[in-house]
Amino acid sequence: MSLDIKSLQQWIGKEQQQADLVTLFPMGALAATLNRNDVEFSTGSTLPPLWHWLYFLSPARQSSLAADGHLEKGGFLPPVPLPRRMWAGSRLIFNHPVRAGQMVSRLSTIESIAVKKGRSGQLVFVRVRHEISNDAGMAMVELQDIVYRDKPGESERTQKLPDGIPAPKQAAFSRIIIADPVLMFRYSALTFNGHRIHYDRDYAAGVEGYPGLIVHGPLLATMLMELMQDELPPSVLKIFEFKSMRPVFDINSFTLCARQENTSVVKLWVEDHEGFLCMEATAEIETNISEE
After folding, report:
1. In total, how many domains does the chain have?
2. Which of 32, 140, 218, 231 could form a disulfide with 173 if both were Cys (CB 3.0 to 4.6 A apart)?
3. Hey, how many other C-beta atoms are within 10 angstroms of the C-beta on 106?
4. Could you tell me if 66 and 197 are in contact, meaning their C-beta atoms sit under 8 angstroms apart?
5. CATH number assigned to the domain comprising residue 190
6. Domain containing residue 11
7. What pLDDT was estimated at residue 290?
8. What is the mean pLDDT of the chain?
9. Residue range 49-70, pLDDT digits in tens
10. Residue 292: inside a domain
């Protein structure tokens, strides 16, 4: 497929403004979805890291959705003429907390658009910069990478992924997860994510050529964050970066892994049932910080 990169790059600099109220129900609902029974939220509670994805949702009309469940291209995001879209990763910088009951705003800007060549054909990477602010100023910045891919080739339609990169073996702590369809439906509902690869098995297999439902990248990142916060002493998160390397499917278990490199860096990753690396992440923290 021929891509008119110059036309697509006209979207660079395009902005979108949104505002939202940090309400309690999504926080409690995600805690339940993650099977947490040790947290309770009230007005003033700190929003846990990565839970900002519960807010700034776009209630698009049903008639404006594409066949994959996403909003039709050509609004805020550029009209990339490739059918498959996935969240490739993010880099988040945390300045100060967001709390339940606060009004927050988000300024989103298309920062870059690039074409690359992958094993399955052409790829288009779109980077979006999200600046999230509350009454104390800019609370966090997220650089989100979205990748667009061509339709699956015949080799992909065998529903057998090629071998990937072996996952590291030096985890200090780990947790085995089975992402059943109910978990994935609840996360899709909480984030108002209509992408059919996460809940429509016939679409995921028949149209996009996957062997099962794909576990959401941000859900995997959130689970890694939960593992780190459960296993390490209290700390202040400064930077968190993750990159999706290989899809994780609901048909097999996967393992969350982490190890602390030094007092300020934690390495995290997701390993699939075959031992391949599916997501890698790095957290930069400040330790020995008294809790608020």
Report:
1. 1
2. 231
3. 19
4. no
5. 3.10.129.10
6. 5-287
7. 53
8. 91
9. 999 999 999 888 888 888 888 8
10. no
